[in-house]
Amino acid sequence: MSSVLNYVLNISPSNVIHLVVILAAALILNHLLRLVTKLIVKPAATQTRASQAREQQTRTLAGVINSAGSKEFGINVTPVAALAGLASLAVGFGAQNLVRDIISGFYIILEDQYVVGDTIQVGETIGRVDHLTLRRTVVRDARGALVTLSNGDIRTVGNLSRDWSQTFVDVSVSPQIAQEKALQALEAAIAEFRGDPSWSQVLVDGPRILGLQSYDQSASTIRLQVRTAPSRQDDVARELRRRIQLEFQRQGIPLWSVQRLELVNPAASPEFAPPAPHA
């Protein structure tokens, strides 16, 4: 460490001038590289996943070319070796994580794991990708909060916006109602739902009745399955429940049977009163 400080203190004026020239040349070359790499980037013409994926991939390629080009010019950095050594000591502890983040981000974009606009799940974080770079992924969750994730910390990611989404709808009806009547009412609600042009375009498969999911003294639960366009499963499930409720009301089918049981304190009941003592 002392030898490095002595070297810095003994830098001659000629080396200082050489350093200034190198820095100026590096800035100019860096500016030219950025101008060239900007020509490679193709902005997304539409909001489709494919267009956004191409844009992210070209941005990654431009960044790689920019980094590689900076190294190919072969600038002599001997006069700045001492300063670089001091700087490396300051950032050396965080360099490993930085490299890990960049490598992970490169593979995220290269393998098209997700792009801006996709809804992803990383651990307990679920949200829409607002920003994506080689180092980090920024997600806006259901609360509206922006959550920043280091790409190197992402071990497992679930993309909820690819191809289709799926959800299940459970309908609980009174066990006194015949199953055939409940199933017919469900089929009627499903047929009406499928025939609605405003909703049929977001349906990929179903809704379909899977059958009796559970049964007890209070209710019989029938499960439905539906596949929708990406990220539309919640909207479809809410509308489907609304239509089922309306159809059951039209046919007079109760959705739930509640049994009330009251426990009476035996000591307060005349039937359980203790016998009067004999005189």
Q: What's the total helix number?
A: 7
* Order of helix and strand elements from N to C terminus: HHHHEEEEEEHHEEH
Largest sheet: 5 strands, antiparallel
What would the principal axes of the Cα set say about the shape?
elongated
Descriptive report:
With 279 residues, the protein is of the alpha+beta class. Helices cover 46% and strands 20% of the residues. It is built from seven helices and eight strands, in the order ααααββββββααββα. It has helices at residues 2-9, 13-38, 49-72, 81-110, 179-194, 197-200, 233-251; strands at residues 119-122, 125-132, 136-141, 146-150, 158-159, 165-173, 203-215, 220-228. It has a five-stranded antiparallel sheet with strand order 4-3-2-1-5. A three-stranded antiparallel sheet has the order 6-8-7, with helices on one face. Helix 1 packs across helix 4 (81-110), helix 2 (13-38) packs antiparallel against helix 3 (49-72) and helix 5 crosses helix 7. The longest helix is centred in the middle third of the chain and has 30 residues, at 81-110. The chain starts with a helix and ends in a 28-residue tail after the last helix. Residues 74-81 and 258-264 have low confidence and may be disordered.
Features:
279 residues, alpha+beta, 3-stranded antiparallel β-sheet, 8 strands, elongated
